[in-house]
Design brief:
16 helices; four-stranded antiparallel beta sheet; 13 strands; Aldehyde Oxidoreductase, domain 3; four-stranded mixed beta sheet; 3 domains; Transferase, Pyrimidine Nucleoside Phosphorylase, Chain A, domain 3; globular; single chain; Pyrimidine Nucleoside Phosphorylase, Chain A, domain 2; alpha/beta
Length: 431
């Protein structure tokens, strides 16, 4: 292992056998953490070649179980977001795509950080169950084209072990290690096509367009090298997506969007992601045609009916679709007023996300318990006019939080005298 650390330190390329050796021996506890830490730091400084990344991803995938979706009819599509604030797209995209007959067999995780993951959001629906047997999971996808389950414990265990070490050795933000981590889970999950949503901005991991583009293109290359049809879009996360941040709140907003009444930015991003999924599954001859078809499923009510069927099939109370008041509701809704008149020129997604997490909408540690009812409801977005003493947002809380939370929300908004153009939603698409 010393020789291999030295090789990567000197910016030389690992062979397939060398990477297999490192991952296999590490999983057998034959290589100590301090040597893997040194190796990860060498990767941090010297990166990895495309070939090395392919080998590393393959080794991570092979370290655990891989889902066999061959019994599901049709081309299986999946999407992945690198995470953001108010990012509810999976709850919208999955039923949209399924309503056009495209199978979505999705494995999603719980959140760590800003807000809950997809599983946390779905679990805020009374009775909803993401702990399905594999046979039931496959049956549901064949029957209704959609099922979502929680990640199995034995999916890419080498990645979990490596990530926990990166977390405490300042090697988390390494493009090759991020890309192989994300893509190993997606490849092990068994879909044929992958649509990636790489977030860019204050509420995202990637803060510059160059770094976001680097991550997106690296993941696309890994996907293609593993025979997965893969593309990525780079989308804005300088301000939260939509108006709702919090688990039950985001489910409510997803329902409204599937009915055609959702926020413009959330609807647009969901339609773009869904269009590529439909196109990749050969259900449309172009992305443009796919988007027309998807809009029709919203206006006809087919999309929301698909969501309703999906909820019921996994034990959830599907009447929440017609009566969102059945979702968990916080005891207090506290307004946060603007202290001046003007135009909203910026909303810090990072700050809003952090506040939502502190309220209980996200996890500070893996053992933190999420409160599905709490969160933040924005009333203004970038570019909109606000009067003095008009609400900027509402806090949905279950106990009387100190006033500094209100001041933190106030400081998340920047008010200017001149009107600001709304944020650009999509920066780039990468194939």
């Amino acid at each position: 292992m010393v020789d291999l650390i030295e090789k990567k330190r000197d910016n030389k390329e690992h062979s397939y056998e060398e990477i297999q050796f490192i991952i296999n021996q590490y999983m057998q506890n034959k290589i100590p953490d301090y040597q893997i830490s040194a190796w990860a730091m060498a990767i941090y400084f010297n990166s990895m070649s495309e070939l090395e990344l392919t080998y590393l991803t393959e080794a991570l995938v092979a370290s655990g179980e891989q889902l066999d979706l061959s019994d599901i009819n049709g081309i299986k599509v999946d999407k992945h977001s690198t995470g953001g604030v108010g990012d509810t797209t999976t709850l919208i995209v999955a039923p949209l795509v399924a309503s056009l007959g495209v199978p979505v067999a999705k494995m999603s995780g719980r959140g760590l950080g800003y807000t809950g993951g997809t599983v946390d959001k779905l679990n805020s629906i009374p009775g909803f169950n993401t702990d399905l047997s594999m046979s039931n999971f496959i049956h549901l996808v064949n029957q209704q084209k959609l099922a979502i389950i929680g990640q199995t414990k034995n999916l890419t265990p080498a990645d979990k072990k490596l990530y926990s070490l990166r977390d405490v050795t300042a090697t988390v933000d390494s493009i090759p290690l991020i890309a192989s981590s994300i893509m190993s889970k997606k490849i092990a999950a068994g879909a044929d096509c992958l649509i990636l949503d790489v977030k860019l901005g204050s509420g995202a991991f990637m803060k510059t367009l160059d770094s976001a583009e680097n991550l997106a293109s690296t993941m696309v290359k890994i996907g293609k090298n593993h025979n997965k049809k893969t593309m990525a879009i780079i989308s804005n996360m300088d301000e939260p997506l939509g108006y709702m941040i919090g688990n039950a709140l985001e489910v409510k907003e997803a329902i409204e969007t599937l009915k055609g009444n959702g926020p413009k930015d959330l609807e647009e991003l969901s339609l773009v992601l869904a269009s590529y999924m439909v196109y990749f599954a050969n259900k449309a001859t172009s992305v443009k045609q796919a988007q027309v078809m998807l809009r029709e499923t919203i206006s006809s009510g087919k999309a929301i009916e698909t969501f309703k069927t999906f909820i019921a099939s996994q034990g959830g109370n599907s009447t929440v679709v017609d009566n969102v008041s059945l979702l968990p509701k916080a005891r207090y809704q506290i307004p946060v007023y603007s202290k001046e008149e003007g135009f909203v020129s910026a909303i810090s997604a990072h700050q809003i996300g952090t506040i939502a997490m502190l309220l209980g909408a996200g996890r500070t540690t893996k053992t933190s318990v999420i409160d599905p009812a709490v969160g933040i409801e924005l009333r203004k977005k970038v570019g909109e006019h606000v009067k003095k003493n008009e609400p900027l947002a509402f806090l949905h809380i279950n106990d009387n939080k100190p006033s500094n939370i209100i001041s933190q929300v106030e400081s998340s908004f920047t008010i200017s005298t001149e009107k600001q153009e709304p944020n650009r939603l999509i920066y780039k698409t990468i194939f």
